Amino acid sequence: MGGTEAFPGDLVPSVEVGPAPPGGLLDVLGLAPVVLDAEGRIALWSQQAEELLGYTAEEALGQYALPLLVEEDHIGTVLELFSSVMESGENWAGVFPVRHKDGAVRQLEFRNMRLQDQHGGFYALGLSTSQETLRQVERDLALSVRLVDQSPIGLAVLDPDLRCVTVNPALAGVSGLPAEQHVGRRVSETLPFLDAARLEAAMRRVLETGTPMVDRQVLGRTPSDLDTERAWSVSLYRLEDPRGRILGVAASVVDVTDRHHAAKEAERARHRLSLVADASMRIGTTLDLWETARELADVTVPELADIAAVDVLDSAVEGRRESVQEGSTAVFRALAVAAAYPTVAVQAADPPGEITRYEADRLVTQCVQTGEPIVVPHVANEDLPRIARDASASVLLAAAGVHSYMAVPLIARGEVLGALDLKRFRNPVPFDSDDVLLASELASRAAVCIDNARWYQQQRNAALALQRSLLPRHPPNLVGLEVASRYQPAGAVSEVGGDWFDILPLSDGKTALVVGDVMGSGINAATAMGRLRTATQTLASLGLGPDEVLRHLDSITGELEPYIATCLYALYDPHKGRVCISTAGHLPPVLLRPGEAPVLLDLPTGVPLGVGGVEFRSVDFALSPGDTLVLYTDGLVETRDQDIDARLHVLLTLMAGPAAGLEETCDRLLDSLRRGPVEDDVALLIARVRE
Length: 691
Fold this sequence. Notes:
Layout: H1 25-29, E1 32-36, E2 42-45, H2 47-53, H3 57-60, H4 65-69, H5 75-88, E3 92-99, E4 105-116, E5 122-130, H6 131-150, E6 154-158, E7 164-167, H7 169-175, H8 187-190, H9 196-209, E8 213-220, E9 230-240, E10 246-255, H10 257-282, H11 289-300, E11 307-313, H12 314-317, E12 330-339, E13 355-358, H13 363-370, E14 374-376, H14 384-387, H15 391-400, E15 404-412, E16 415-424, H16 433-465, E17 481-488, E18 497-505, E19 511-521, H17 523-541, H18 546-558, E20 565-573, E21 578-584, E22 590-592, E23 599-600, E24 618-622, E25 628-632, H19 644-655, H20 662-673, E26 682-689
Antiparallel strand pairs: 1-2, 1-5, 3-4, 4-5, 6-7, 6-10, 8-9, 9-10, 11-12, 11-16, 12-13, 14-15, 15-16, 17-26, 18-19, 19-20, 20-21, 21-24, 22-23, 22-25, 25-26
């Protein structure tokens, strides 16, 4: 029978024939075959036996195995085993001590069996290896199997065709299929919820290049938990045998869902902090009530909502502190509306400037009544009448697809001013607790700006109608300062001018010292001065820095055409022992320290108020007990016939005289510098740090 006739047709098996380089498992075990004849002589001796026991073939062949290899104490046992194998043909396996050529006894693992030749003769074949080597291989194999089976990391081996060879229980748990159902299948068949095409493309690259892919994150939803997005870290590496032959690719899959969600939450938190920081820069850039409301609406869209509306209680806009009682209606004045995209839902919002009354059952009314956020994560049809202003607005909101709603109160200094109204249409995610926190933070920051703006607006309106007294009274009990001041009108007829000074104690113990000069004279200049004084007092009460105060005064002065003014604003902090000064085209103050020569403070001059378009800067100085600041208007030192630098030198010379009380110093300066007819009024303010 020919070699191919046993396999008719196309059933001839495909056999891979070729040399096997050393390094395989049999080589690691070092199996040593030895054949004994029926009388116990060594008939065949292998090279492996020589390496294992030390005897060459010439030394071993023809010798009786017992005296050559077995200790005397074990000869009886060996004879029994030899007889049993040769007579019954039963195989025997076990461990037996064998003597090495060097005299040492070694434990060998044996597999013994009977052989028969063509003449009916019997032989004994012994396959032996070092017990130590075999046990090490067994331990390594058992350890490998246990590591794979018990590992919490999903492990899989795929052949070069990317079909599964084996998976461990951890990976089977990910797929939901028994481990045996993975064998022979591709990734797309066992893990359809992953991006199988990309994974298989990555596996091919690993097979082709040998470069591992480490910690590639893959997202998906398992069949057992479709509501939760899960994340796995996938690593791939090529498998090769000791001879370098490519066996396939191994994959490890680690569930990193918690890490993924934590990273997403951290990124979300960073984004929200960035949004809050951005809001801090964008909201409150002016003291205009309407602009501040628009800034709040704009900053929330589209980051937080698709449509945002800012509505303030009409009583708050008018300056009346009235709370909305439970069960009563609320009257709102709409200030701003912003939308992420064109939509009919904008028509459902109150137009800016419109005053609307909302009934007690409306959610926005409940928001300002309780001072707490109102959230409807999933808006149903029955919720719309409590959200919209009327039936037509409900229809518009439903048509636009509103699905989530939130109203957050605007609270400043303990007073509920209104509400920030937020709706989602295209954004598919409902409002959650994190959104409530973010909206509340934005509303809180904006409410203070809105309150400042409406308060400033009220004060500014009052300042436009009223002229303050030209000679303010010294406030009692200034913290850390004693002051003296003078005002002298210009000319013999005591014509009222535009010079002024102010001493403004603030709620935190600080004191604002102000001197200013509106160009010109007469009632108009005095009226302009009164407006600036009122605005300055209002701005100072808001806790703004000197440069910010001047920036707002510059804007106000621009509305008082054709007037411009110079001004110096100093903010003294007794807790830090420092003064912060900013100037708008005004002459520098004099600083006198005990035991030192008086100096003119080096300040950036700035431009006069009303010029506009130029930033103001503040400079900080330390003040110690006994230090004296002299603030003045140009009427104190300017004359027609002398250079201003010379006059300032005279001022410093007068201040360098013997120490005196502040009232006496005021008189001395006026007497010395204001001799003869004068054409300009003067304001003088001296402040000394108390011991």
